[in-house]
Specification:
Blueprint lengths: L4 H4 L2 H4 L7 H4 L32 H11 L6 E4 L2 H12 L6 E4 L6 H8 L3 E4 L10 H7 L4 E7 L11 H10 L3 E5 L21 E6 L12 E4 L2 H10 L7 H10 L3 H24 L5 E2 L6 E5 L3 H10 L5 E2 L9 E5 L3 H15 L2 H5 L3
This protein binds pyridoxal-5'-phosphate (PLP).
Catalytic activity: L-histidinol phosphate + 2-oxoglutarate = 3-(imidazol-4-yl)-2-oxopropyl phosphate + L-glutamate
Subunit structure: Homodimer.
Pathway: Amino-acid biosynthesis; L-histidine biosynthesis; L-histidine from 5-phospho-alpha-D-ribose 1-diphosphate: step 7/9; Lipid metabolism
Length: 359
């Protein structure tokens, strides 16, 4: 593979002089700190937040490094994975000139982030059984294609994409390949963290928003070569991960027993939910899932979605999305929530409008 990161980078980013924060210029812990215009007295809250946090999240990364078995030079932390995605556009994609490839049906933020950054999006749909078609993807690549976004396990279909197909794209594409593993903690299949050393063009994105149960803290992780991580660090807002998030997550990482326990419980609930959904006669398909949700095909999904909302059960209507006609995406809830969902869905699907086709 012939991969040249510097050639991929936008020229003005290569020559950019980054902001140097007070904490960049002196990072010692002891001293009289009169360099950042902070409040020396404390905070208006009971707990003190008056000092700026570590811009490079060193302590947190050391812990993550052990858990993920990836060296800390290969870890970038963002305010949610969405920040890492946005920074990739800003670092590598020239507005009005470059393009990226996405594989519908897929996570919506890639296209939104491309739009915000005025970057063209080429769409290469997955096959109807939601698999990556490596030849079709590679055919779409042109001289201005900078990033290919692959989501596995895929949102909204829930399946993993075949490993060999992903690797083929990573091998034959000279730009960046992003594998979004937001749901990897629920999957029985291995992710791609162990491929980073072999593929300097690979980024693996993970998040604490799903299995870890920390969506409100906003912590996304991008794992990549030290050179890519250095570029993202260069252009990120200096204090993108709050002190509260760094501290809370650093402590939470001690608690991996609870993580395992919650994942086991969700996977148990998931299997029960699958069986219950499959028992409803009007349910057409419950697609195979390696995530914490199911894509479910039902008659007249849009109407079913609205009727469920009237019953205060909120699922995601994906019926307008490629290959997802009449599909709802349903998150695995707790035991009670799943019982309520199944009951409501059963009731709605038994209503006359489903079989009679009246609005
Ligand atoms: C939920 C989700 C994310 C999470 O994004 P955060 O900004 O980290 O909360 C990322 N990618 C996919 C595919 C998701 O479904």
């Amino acid at each position: 593979m012939d991969f040249d990161l510097q050639k991929l980078l936008r020229p003005h980013i290569a020559s950019l002089k980054p902001y140097s924060s007070a904490r960049d210029e002196y990072s010692g812990k002891e001293g009289v700190f009169l360099d950042a215009n902070e409040n020396p007295l404390g905070s208006i809250t009971e707990q003190d937040f008056n000092r700026y946090p570590d811009p490079y999240q060193t302590v947190l990364k050391e812990k993550l490094s052990k858990i993920k078995k990836v060296s800390k030079e290969r870890i970038f932390l963002g305010n949610g994975s969405d920040e890492a995605i946005d920074l990739l556009f800003r670092a590598f994609c020239q507005p009005g000139l470059d393009n990226v490839i996405i594989l519908p049906p897929t996570y919506g933020m890639y296209e939104v982030s491309a739009g915000i950054n005025d970057i063209a999006v080429k769409k290469v749909p997955l096959s109807p059984d939601f698999q990556l078609l490596p030849h079709k993807v590679l055919e779409e690549v042109d001289a201005h294609t900078k990033i290919i976004f692959i989501c596995s396990p895929n949102n909204p279909s829930g399946n993993t994409l075949k490993r060999e197909s992903i690797l083929q794209v990573a091998r034959d594409f000279q730009g960046l390949v992003v594998i979004d593993e937001a749901y990897i903690d629920f999957s029985v299949e291995p992710g791609f963290l162990n491929m980073l050393e072999q593929f300097p063009n690979l980024l693996v994105i993970q998040t604490l928003s799903k299995a870890w149960g920390l969506a409100a803290l906003r912590l996304g992780m991008a794992f990549a070569s030290p050179d890519i991580v250095a570029i993202l660090n260069k252009i990120k807002p200096p204090y993108n991960i709050s002190g509260l998030t760094q501290k809370t997550v650093t402590e939470a990482l001690e608690n991996s027993d609870k993580l395992e326990q919650m994942i086991r419980e969700i996977l148990t609930q998931k299997e029960t939910l699958r069986k219950q959904l499959e028992k409803i006669p009007q349910v057409d398909t419950v697609y195979p899932s390696q995530a914490n949700f199911f894509l479910v095909k039902v008659p007249r999904a849009k109407k079913v979605y609205q009727r469920l909302i009237e019953k205060k059960i909120i699922v995601r209507d994906r019926s307008a999305v490629q290959h997802c006609d009449d599909c709802l995406r349903i998150t695995v809830g707790n035991q009670l929530e799943n019982i309520q969902l199944v009951q409501a869905l059963q009731d709605v699907l038994a209503e006359p409008f489903i079989s009679e086709g009246v609005n």
